[in-house]
Structures are given as C-alpha cells and as structure tokens.
Amino acid sequence: MLVGIQHLETRRAVKRLQREKQLVMEPLPLELPADTVQRIASELRCHPTDERVALRLDEEDKLRHFKEHFHIPKMQDLPAIDLSLVNKDENAIYFSGNSLGLQPKLVKTYLEEELDKWAKMGVYGHEVGKRPWITGDETILGLMNDIVGANEKEIALMNGLTVNLHLLLLSFFKPTPERYKILLEAKAFPSDHYVIESQLQLHGLNVEKSMRIIKPREGEETLRTEDILEVIEKEGDSIAVILFGGLHFYTGQLFNIPAITRAGQAKGCFVGFDLAHAVGNVELHLHDWGVDFACWCSYKYLNSGAGGLAGAFVHEKHAYRIKPALVGWFGHELSSRFKMDNKLQLSPGVSGFRISNPPILLVCSLQASLEIFKQATMKALRRKSILLTGYLEYLIKHYYNKDTADTKKPFVNIITPSCIEERGCQLTLTFSVPMKYVFQELEKRGVVCDKREPNGIRVAPVPLYNSFHDVYKFINLLTSTLDSAETK
C-alpha cells in the first residue's frame, strides 16, 4: 500500500511540473518502473519481489550484452571480502560506477598500440597512426557529442576537472561592484567549493558575502527547483556566475539544468555546470539548453580510469566573445602552431582553452569507453537506467520502509528524489542502524558501493554493466546485513 501511495505521489509531482510548464530535461517514460515490475510479476504470476521478475527484466534488456565489454571484479579479489560469506568465483556486486567506472576490456589493447608505436618509432608517433599524438584528443571528440549534447567545436578534452573549473571561471567570472557573487548549491562537491572560494579570493572579494549558497528547506535533504529560481530572480542582478553541479554527488539529485540556465541568463548571469556526476549518467543537451560553460571528469560513468582525461564545454555563442585568461601552446591554431614565431593565433571557443599537448595514454582509455557509449546510445542507456534504479527503489521500499508496528526493525531511507526526472542512477541511502556497520558488512559480502559523510551510502546500478539480477542479489545481501545488525 505504501509503495502505491508513493508511486501516486511521483505521478502527481510530474504532472504538476508539466502543468507549470517548467522546462524539464527528459520526457516521462510511457511506463513507470513500479508499473513495469508489477506488470511482469502479473504475467509471471508471482510476487513483484520474486527473483523471476529480475530474470525476466534481464531477458528483455537489449543492452545486457554490453557488460561483456568490461572487466568485472571477482569476489575473491576484493580487499574487504569475507570468503566465508561468499562464493569467491562470483562477480562482485559493483554499484560504485558513480565513483570509479569499471575498466573496458579494450583499454589494454589501445594502450599497447601506443606503447608499441612509441617503442618502434619514437618521435614519429606524433604524426602517424590512428591516434597521432599531436591531435590525439581531437580524434575522439566526435564520440563525446551525443553524450553531452554539443557540437564538436564546443568540446575540449583536457586536464583534470578542477583545473578546467579554474580555467573557465578565470574567463567567465569578471566581477564588478554591482555583480560580484557566485551562486552554488549547499554541500557542493569540494572541487566546486574550493575553486569558487579561491577565485573570489583571487579577485580580493569577501568570500562570505560573495559566495551565495542555496540550502534546502528546513527538514529537507534536497533543493526545490522553485527555491533555486526564486533566489535567482531576487538576487540575480548581483550574481555574476551560477555554478551548480549537474547532479549532486551526495544526494543524487539531478538539477533542472535548462530551467536554471534560462533563469540565470534572463538576469544577466553566466551559467555553468560541473557535470562530473551527470555525464554518462543522464541525457544532456548543453548546446540546445544554451548553457554557457561546463566541465566534467571522465573516470566515473565514462569509465576512463582513475585520474582520466577531463572535458570542458563552451557554447559556440561565446566562441569569439569569451577568451581564455591563461593560454598555452595548444590553444594556438594547429595550422600555424609549429611556426614557433610566438605570435598567438588563438583557436576560437573552447579549443583555445587548451594548454598542453594531450596525454595520449589517457586518450586511449577514454576512447575505449566512449566507443561503447556510441554503440549503446545515451537515450537507450537512460531508458534502462530509469527502470534499473526504479526496480532497486521498489525493492528497498517494499522491504525496508519504517515499520511503526515494529520500532526495532531496521529501516532504510532514500534521500534521493523519487521523481525519475530529478535523479540519475544513484540512490543515497541512510539507515536506522550505524552506517559504518552497514557499509562494512556489505563490503564483506562483496558489494562495492561507497559511504559519504555524514551518514549516506551511495549505490549506483550502472546500465552499461549492471543487471537487474545484480539489484536482486544486492537486496538479499542488504537483508543479510540488516538482519545481522538487528541481532547484534
């Protein structure tokens, strides 16, 4: 009954958004996840929590073969595993793609190709092969277009996320006595917070007065879109830049990027996004939404490996209006770059923000993953993700909602929004029992997720390599964990 009520509330919330004609990022699927689960259970004549439902969902999953493109860790290789609780030869339940994506099998092949080229021909590798080292980053730009919804000339693959944040803010944040604030969400990822703080200090501004942080309402975990828009409307004349995370790393909330962008620009603000937890997770249409600038890392949902090559976006409308504050050799037009006359011919747009030659080994690992995305398509991945995470949510709410009749029974709270348009694949869970105990017991049982202070465990079933049966098995392991907590 409780699941049904929450399901109805989700429908009402979506209809309310549509009535208000807010620009939402993705259309509602024809069938909500709970409806799909219940329909299949009815067809199979079993309870929605039955294992057969998960197996049927996997049978109908047209993307299920993509997991074969990845190395999935085995139980026996995990450092925190308790081998007495698991089958050592089974795959781990890897729900940590929001922190570090799994390794595509082609990474090793592509790395060996470049290492072999280096060994055999040395410096000639700069100009020959399928990844000439001088233009290595540019050879894979086309694979990013659909993932972020941008033109190739609006994208650069360079540096790390925080470096790109600094480079972009140096050019977009030009404070005046009247317009001097940067707007961000509460408890933003440290990269965003530290970058904004240091940029304000660089301009000699008072951080407390210039760093405008929007907090959720009292007693709520996530921000309401209407509250964000209200702050922009009231204070927009004093805000120079809005820099939000596209998706909040802790709560898993997906912000309404187009609505925030339109509201900010209507007040004369530049609007940018840190898409670290959104890229490769949800559909993005940066060009069509008119976002001014954005950046992202690539080692989470884009599976490029720890410290992988990051990305940046500058809308084409700024190609000749916004120039980099700091320039380097690789921001110079390729056609005359090697004349070495020290007369800068700056590449227009985001390409001019590049500082140094591309790290070809990082290009290799990113290419291996982006090619998989090209085959799968973001639209299909997002469609599966909605159902995959919806199935996880359905089972958690069925088993672990707070039981007023049994106050000693452990319960699980999902702080991530229930509305599918306001989240990606991640659910952040809090518990009535100590979070650290739950996390340690899940690790012993081969579940790879992560904990985040103050009290959340983040679980992220990734559509490229996670299955519905993974979700089913996770729930069984969570039950075992909570049962042990209850008897402890």
Automatic annotation (TrEMBL):
<dbReference type="GO" id="GO:0034341">
    <property type="term" value="P:response to type II interferon"/>
</dbReference>
<dbReference type="InterPro" id="IPR015422">
    <property type="entry name" value="PyrdxlP-dep_Trfase_small"/>
</dbReference>
<dbReference type="GO" id="GO:0019805">
    <property type="term" value="P:quinolinate biosynthetic process"/>
</dbReference>
<keyword id="KW-0662">Pyridine nucleotide biosynthesis</keyword>
<feature type="binding site">
    <location>
        <position position="277"/>
    </location>
    <ligand>
        <name>pyridoxal 5'-phosphate</name>
    </ligand>
</feature>
<feature type="binding site">
    <location>
        <begin position="189"/>
        <end position="192"/>
    </location>
    <ligand>
        <name>pyridoxal 5'-phosphate</name>
    </ligand>
</feature>
<comment type="pathway">
    <text>Cofactor biosynthesis; NAD(+) biosynthesis; quinolinate from L-kynurenine: step 2/3.</text>
</comment>
<feature type="binding site">
    <location>
        <position position="299"/>
    </location>
    <ligand>
        <name>pyridoxal 5'-phosphate</name>
    </ligand>
</feature>
<dbReference type="GO" id="GO:0034354">
    <property type="term" value="P:'de novo' NAD+ biosynthetic process from L-tryptophan"/>
</dbReference>
<keyword id="KW-0663">Pyridoxal phosphate</keyword>
<dbReference type="GO" id="GO:0005654">
    <property type="term" value="C:nucleoplasm"/>
</dbReference>
<dbReference type="GO" id="GO:0034516">
    <property type="term" value="P:response to vitamin B6"/>
</dbReference>
<dbReference type="GO" id="GO:0043420">
    <property type="term" value="P:anthranilate metabolic process"/>
</dbReference>
<dbReference type="InterPro" id="IPR015424">
    <property type="entry name" value="PyrdxlP-dep_Trfase"/>
</dbReference>
<comment type="function">
    <text>Catalyzes the cleavage of L-kynurenine (L-Kyn) and L-3-hydroxykynurenine (L-3OHKyn) into anthranilic acid (AA) and 3-hydroxyanthranilic acid (3-OHAA), respectively. Has a preference for the L-3-hydroxy form. Also has cysteine-conjugate-beta-lyase activity.</text>
</comment>
<feature type="binding site">
    <location>
        <position position="357"/>
    </location>
    <ligand>
        <name>pyridoxal 5'-phosphate</name>
    </ligand>
</feature>
<dbReference type="GO" id="GO:0005737">
    <property type="term" value="C:cytoplasm"/>
</dbReference>
<dbReference type="GO" id="GO:0030170">
    <property type="term" value="F:pyridoxal phosphate binding"/>
</dbReference>
<dbReference type="InterPro" id="IPR010111">
    <property type="entry name" value="Kynureninase"/>
</dbReference>
<feature type="binding site">
    <location>
        <position position="274"/>
    </location>
    <ligand>
        <name>pyridoxal 5'-phosphate</name>
    </ligand>
</feature>
<feature type="binding site">
    <location>
        <position position="161"/>
    </location>
    <ligand>
        <name>pyridoxal 5'-phosphate</name>
    </ligand>
</feature>
<dbReference type="Pfam" id="PF22580">
    <property type="entry name" value="KYNU_C"/>
</dbReference>
<keyword id="KW-0963">Cytoplasm</keyword>
<dbReference type="GO" id="GO:0042803">
    <property type="term" value="F:protein homodimerization activity"/>
</dbReference>
<comment type="similarity">
    <text>Belongs to the kynureninase family.</text>
</comment>
<dbReference type="GO" id="GO:0005739">
    <property type="term" value="C:mitochondrion"/>
</dbReference>
<comment type="subunit">
    <text>Homodimer.</text>
</comment>
<dbReference type="GO" id="GO:0005829">
    <property type="term" value="C:cytosol"/>
</dbReference>
<dbReference type="GO" id="GO:0030429">
    <property type="term" value="F:kynureninase activity"/>
</dbReference>
<feature type="binding site">
    <location>
        <position position="329"/>
    </location>
    <ligand>
        <name>pyridoxal 5'-phosphate</name>
    </ligand>
</feature>
<comment type="pathway">
    <text>Amino-acid degradation; L-kynurenine degradation; L-alanine and anthranilate from L-kynurenine: step 1/1.</text>
</comment>
<feature type="modified residue" description="N6-(pyridoxal phosphate)lysine">
    <location>
        <position position="300"/>
    </location>
</feature>
<protein>
    <recommendedName>
        <fullName>Kynureninase</fullName>
        <ecNumber>3.7.1.3</ecNumber>
    </recommendedName>
</protein>
<keyword id="KW-0007">Acetylation</keyword>
<keyword id="KW-0378">Hydrolase</keyword>
<dbReference type="GO" id="GO:0097053">
    <property type="term" value="P:L-kynurenine catabolic process"/>
</dbReference>
<dbReference type="InterPro" id="IPR015421">
    <property type="entry name" value="PyrdxlP-dep_Trfase_major"/>
</dbReference>
<feature type="binding site">
    <location>
        <position position="162"/>
    </location>
    <ligand>
        <name>pyridoxal 5'-phosphate</name>
    </ligand>
</feature>
<dbReference type="GO" id="GO:0019441">
    <property type="term" value="P:L-tryptophan catabolic process to kynurenine"/>
</dbReference>
